Amino acid sequence: MHLDVADSTTLPYGWNRYAQFGLAVINQIHDKFTIRKDAQHQLNARESDWGLTSFIPLGELYDLARGYFVNDTCIVEADVTVCRVIDY
């Protein structure tokens, strides 16, 4: 899963954002099995996205008995807090 700065090409030259964020895949049957990962990262024109290469094994995600897909729906949540904005 990846987080990407929206409209990053329209931001001022030298832009920089320090963000804290959480990404989650919701378990719709048993909330205690929801998978959530938190991170913080500095985003800028050279690196306008950030993500996790491994979040949940696909076999686990697609196993209907595990509760991540219910009625053909998988719920993904993202919480983002921009802690610092710098525009040079």
TrEMBL record:
Residues 1-80 form the MATH domain. It holds the Pfam family MATH_2. SUPFAM superfamilies: TRAF domain-like. Keywords: Coiled coil. Gene3D superfamilies: Apoptosis, Tumor Necrosis Factor Receptor Associated Protein 2, Chain A. PANTHER family: MATH DOMAIN-CONTAINING PROTEIN, TRAF-LIKE SUPERFAMILY PROTEIN. This is MATH domain-containing protein. It comes from Vitis vinifera (Grape). The lineage of its organism: Eukaryota, Viridiplantae, Streptophyta, Embryophyta, Tracheophyta.
